[in-house]
Each structure stands twice: as structure tokens, then as C-alpha cells.
Automatic annotation (TrEMBL):
This is LutB/LldF family L-lactate oxidation iron-sulfur protein. Residues 315-384 form the 4Fe-4S ferredoxin-type domain. Keywords: 4Fe-4S, Electron transport, Iron, Iron-sulfur, Metal-binding, Repeat, Transport. InterPro entries: 4Fe4S_Fe-S-bd, 4Fe4S_Fe_S_CS, FTHF_cligase-like_sf, Helical_ferredxn, LUD_dom, LutB/LldF, LutB_C, NagB/RpiA_transferase-like. Residues 408-474 form the Lactate utilization protein B C-terminal domain. Residues 71-299 form the LUD domain.
């Protein structure tokens, strides 16, 4: 199943289908409640959480305001350390660059670290068209890939699956593409993890090319950072001969010291842990240690469009923790597939329309996929005001796509009249003069269409014989 937003129905239509799945809702409720509880416990341990949050927001805002400077600094540092930087305007260019790099190695398969950016550009599908197999090594991503499914959560892509479903996927699919699952496989988490470990081991040991994303890219040193919980990422980052990292341009941070803030905010907000079990950092190429051919693909794919929006650019502060998904009452009931993109939930509802534009029915509908309860803003570790962004994007959708109605024309006329004192005075005099026509009975009578839709449904007083402004001028001798 493709993760593309193209051709997707609008959110209400897609959500209606997901809401009919009672097992999905049960799985989501259990998983999100567990993550919410764990997050709450570890956040309460820090007396300076509010200050950390403010620091994270300020660092991201500063970086985005000076993004060109920091990206050039990052490119120079990577190059000096022996790596190669490529710039990709969009998904097609990024896929072409990565495909060409893999072909240059003459390999026909790659192992992958969990990466939102590569899912965003549908890299696996592009590699498959080129005859290259891409194997996901994150446990949840493996489940999704083997099940011919799509991710439904930023942190836990297979959150919509329960253990029994995962067991059946492993037993049915693993043997088709590698080491099969044990015949006596149960749905115990430890047994499922062991089956995945055995299945992936041969791929880790034979693959000579790996593809990753990055959680952060340090401008001063050219360092990339990946945080994870399983160790599969470290296997991909250290064993292969060639490493290709696809990184959104918003992932850059100015200095190594800035990681002190984000490596406290991210694990607590995402997995409810004090720190990630595995934090891998690498800088360029080191002789005899790790991959000897290193490439970074810096991905735009709509990000500069979002950056140009003074209100919308704050969505680029997102560190992909998924905290907003875990508290969202809409996401908890519909799951991620209803959002039609690799970025689901509240952050997806504001990020997707900015990256893609609002041409598709799905992207136009996403800003409305929210109750505006504000829970997403409360838990965001970098203080993205998602409710404000949703309202901002709703306005944009209306301005760009809604057909003008007679009421829209009337509201523009009202705005024109109310915007000038002389025009308002003239309109008030005209309204007072029209009282004889409109309000013989003391109320406004039936008006012609389309205003009849308003007058037929309510009684409103006819205009006063004299406006307050005119009365004040007559009795007080002034214009105030």
C-alpha cells in the first residue's frame, strides 16, 4: 500500500472507514494511553521542563530564521570530514540521487534505518522500480512492510496492529523474503522480537549499502544524529560500506551543545524515556571504522514554501516526537491512515498542506481534522501552536479554493462600508430612510434572495429612525 496523499479521499471520508474498525480503535486507545502515561511520569520529574521547552522552541526558531547560513555551514563541515552533500529540490530529485548512488555500488539491495523523510518521498517504491530491494529494519517498520501496509504513527508505525495480527504477518510473510518465522511462534513480545532479529540478521551481515534519515544535523561539525530503541539503526550505520542519509533541511541545529536540550525533550516526549537506549552520531568518514563512502541528501520538498509563511513556518520546528498524536482525540479514534500521509495526527494536519499545497481533497480537508482542543500544543516539546496553525490553514484553504457566494460579496461590501466613517454615516442615513419600506411592522420584512434565507428564519428590528452617531451629533454638538 502506498503512503502517497495523491488520489486520497478527503479526511472525513477516509476517517469514516477507519472509525468502522472496532479493533483498530481498541488498539489505538490502549497504545496511546500507555505512551501518554509514561510521558507524563518522566516529564513531571523535571522541574525545568517549561524552560527546556522554551529553549527548544527558541533554538529552532533561531535556526529557521538563519537556515541558509546553517545549511551552508553544515555542507562545508560534512565535506571537510570526507562526506558528500547533495541538494534535492523535491521527492523526484531525491529519489534519483539515491537511486544513482546505490546503482554506482552495483548492489541490488539496501538496509534502512527508520526514516520519515524517505517515507515522505516514497523512496522504497522508487528503488523497487529500479530493481533494488529496500529492507526496513525497525521492528514496527518491518511489520508494516511485511504486511504490505502503511505507517499510521510517527513513533510506532504499526500502532494499529496487535500482537496476534503481528504473529500472523510474520508467519505468513517472513519466509517469502528471507529467514522464515519459527513454526511455534507465539504472540509474546519477546518471541516476536526474536523472530524479527533472526530474520534481519542475514540482511545486516550481507548488505553493503544502508540508507538512513537523521533526527538532527549539527551545522558546526557536520555530525548526524539518530536516536532509536532497538539497535537496528546502529547496525545499519556501522556495518555497510556505503551510507546514504536523507535529511530534511529543517533538521539542522547550530552546534553540538544544542543537543543537550533536544536529547532531553525528544525521548521524554516520544517514548516516555529519560534517554534513548541508542544515540548514534557520525561525522564524515573515518578510515577503517564504519562506512567508507558517506552521502547526505538535503531534502527541501516543500519546506522552503512552509518557511516563507511567517505563521506556518513554526511547523518546521517539529522534532517528530509524536506527543501530539498520543493526546489527540481525533487521531485516537481514526488512526493515521485517515490522514493520507506518512505524517498523521495534528502535526500532519498542519505539515502536509504546507509541504504539498492544498490542491488535493485530502490536503484541503486536513486543517479541519481537529476539535481545536489545544492538547497538542500543551504537550509539544518545542511549543508549536498547532491550533493556531490549523485556523491559519483553514483561512488559507477558504481563500484559495472556496467559491465566492453572494454572502461573501455582501461581507466584502460590509467591510468596505465599516472601514470608513463617511461611508458608514451615509449607509446609516440610507438605512433610516428605508425604515418605511423595510419595517412597517417594526421588524425587517422579507428581503429578496439570497437575503431571504436570513429574513425568513428570524425577526430583526428595522433600522432606527436615527442612528446613535446622528443622535450624538444633534444632542452633543460633536462627532464623538
Amino acid at each position: 500500500m502506498s503512503t502517497t496523499h495523491l488520489g486520497m479521499p478527503d479526511f472525513p471520508t477516509a476517517a469514516r472507514h477507519e472509525l468502522a474498525d472496532s479493533q483498530l480503535r481498541h488498539n489505538l486507545a490502549n497504545a496511546t494511553a500507555t505512551i501518554r502515561r509514561k510521558r507524563g511520569e518522566v516529564v513531571e520529574e523535571l522541574d525545568d521542563w517549561a524552560q527546556l521547552r522554551e529553549a527548544g522552541a527558541a533554538l529552532k526558531a533561531h535556526t529557521l530564521s538563519n537556515l541558509d547560513t546553517y545549511l551552508e555551514r553544515f555542507e562545508a563541515a560534512v565535506t571537510e570530514a570526507g562526506g558528500t552533500v547533495h541538494w534535492a529540490r523535491d521527492a523526484a530529485e531525491a529519489n534519483r540521487i539515491v537511486t544513482d548512488l546505490v546503482r554506482a555500488t552495483e548492489e541490488r539491495e539496501v538496509v534502512k534505518v527508520k526514516s520519515m523523510a524517505t517515507q515522505e518521498i516514497e523512496l522504497n517504491e522508487a528503488l523497487a522500480e529500479a530493481g533494488i530491494d529496500a529492507w526496513e529494519t525497525d521492528l514496527a517498520e518491518l511489520i508494516v512492510q511485511l504486511g504490505d501496509d502503511a505507517p499510521s504513527h510517527i513513533l510506532v508505525p504499526a500502532i494499529h496492529r496487535n500482537r496476534a495480527e503481528i504473529r500472523e504477518i510474520f508467519r505468513r510473510e517472513m519466509g517469502k523474503v528471507g529467514a522464515p518465522a519459527p513454526e511455534d511462534l507465539t504472540d509474546e513480545p519477546a518471541k516476536l522480537a526474536e523472530a524479527a532479529r533472526q530474520h534481519l540478521r542475514e540482511k545486516f551481515l550481507r548488505s553493503k549499502v544502508a540508507i538512513s534519515g537523521a533526527n538532527f544535523a549539527v551545522a558546526d561539525s557536520g555530525t548526524l544524529v539518530v536516536v532509536e530503541s532497538e539497535g537496528n539503526g546502529r547496525m545499519c550505520l556501522t556495518l555497510p560500506e556505503t551510507l546514504i542519509s536523507v535529511v530534511g533541511i529543517e533538521k539542522v541545529v547550530p552546534s553540538w551543545q544544542d543537543l543537550e536540550v533536544f536529547l532531553q525533550l525528544l525521548p521524554r516526549s516520544s517514548t516516555g524515556e529519560r534517554m534513548n537506549p541508542y544515540t548514534s552520531t557520525w561525522t564524515g568518514v573515518t578510515a577503517g571504522d564504519g562506512p567508507q563512502d558517506f552521502h547526505v541528501v538535503l531534502l527541501d520538498n516543500g519546506r522552503t514554501n512552509a518557511l516563507a509563511d511567517e505563521v506556518g513556518r513554526q511547523a518546521l520546528r517539529c522534532i517528530r516526537c509524536s506527543a501530539c498524536l498520543n493526546v489527540c482525540p481525533v487521531y485516537e479514534r481514526t488512526g493515521g491512515h485517515a490522514y493520507g500521509s506518512v505524517y498523521p495526527g495534528p502535526i500532519g494536519a498542519v505539515l502536509n498542506p504546507q509541504l504539498h499545497g492544498t490542491e488535493s481533497d485530502m490536503d484541503k480537508s486536513l486543517p479541519y481534522a481537529s476539535s481545536l482542543c489545544g492538547a497538542c500544543y500543551d504537550v509539544c516539546p518545542v511549543a508549536i501552536d498547532i491550533p493556531d496553525l490549523l485556523v491559519h490553514l483553514r483561512t488559507r484553504v477558504v481563500e484559495e479554493h472556496e467559491r465566492k457566494t453572494p454572502l461573501d460579496v455582501l461581507m466584502k461590501m460590509a467591510s468596505w462600508v465599516l472601514g470608513d466613517a463617511k461611508r458608514l454615516t451615509a449607509a446609516q442615513k440610507m438605512a433610516s430612510w428605508s425604515r418605511k419600506v423595510l419595517g412597517r411592522s417594526g421588524t425587517i420584512g422579507r428581503l429578496p434572495a439570497p437575503l431571504s434565507r436570513w429574513t425568513d428564519a428570524r425577526d430583526a428590528p428595522a433600522p432606527a429612525q436615527e442612528s446613535f452617531r446622528a443622535w450624538w451629533q444633534r444632542t452633543r454638538g460633536g462627532d464623538r
